[in-house]
Amino acid sequence: MLDRLKAETRAEHIAMEGTLGIMGDDLELAHYRQLLERYCGFYAPVEARLADVLGLAPPGGLDLQARRKLALLRADLLALGGPAADTLAVCTALPPLHTPAQAMGCLYVLEGATLGGVVIGRHVQRTLGLTPESGARFFHGNGAHTAELWRAFRAALAGFAVNPGIADVVVESANATFRSLRHWCLRGPAA
């Protein structure tokens, strides 16, 4: 399942990375903050929907609370100053999140972003001097537990998506999540 997801979402993943523009040596604080604002406006409704869809019994016993990133985004925005997180625009063009299979496809993108965020976090520290304590908590992810939580997600996904029909929906949802987030990030300032 993971090999299939990686292969079949590759184009959307590459397009998303190209949209972010965060890995250049010319990264500026204003662009970084704007990206965090966009992420905040996306994660707020997505995390709420994921909790609604997966409820108290997520596949594989996943700990959804440990995977939430909205509080990290809000803490980073507070540390960086500017508009309060609760005054930012919120994405309404979300990927479909009505079934557990759709939720798992979305989680694949969010969990992958957490894993990849560690690399971004090191870059942000090098280029902007930001640490988890000074505005880069989101890209620090789950800290020392990031790899462990990724492995748990992979195992849960593999056990969940054994049916080809379910696997198709997971892949479709992952692509829809990439597209939705990319279009949201392209909109510009979130205030």
In short, what is this structure?
This protein has 191 residues and is an all-alpha fold. Helices cover 66% and strands 0% of the residues.
Describe the structure.
With 191 residues, this protein is mostly helical. The protein has a single domain (2-186), classed as Heme Oxygenase, Chain A (Up-down Bundle), CATH 1.20.910. The protein has helices at 2-8, 10-20, 29-54, 64-67, 70-80, 100-128, 146-160, 164-186. The longest helix is centred in the middle third of the chain and has 29 residues, at 100-128. The chain is globular and about 45 Å long.
Q: What's the topology here?
A:
Blueprint: H1 2-8, H2 10-20, H3 29-54, H4 64-67, H5 70-80, H6 100-128, H7 146-160, H8 164-186
Keywords, separated by commas or semicolons:
single chain, 191 residues, mainly alpha, Heme Oxygenase, Chain A, 0% strand, globular
Gyration radius over CA: 16 Å
- What's the CATH class label? Mainly Alpha
State the assembly state of the protein chains.
single chain
- Mass-distribution shape: globular
* Content-based structural category: mainly alpha
* Alpha carbon gap, first and last residue: 38 Å
Share of residues in strands: under 5%
Number of helices: 8
Point out poorly predicted stretches: none
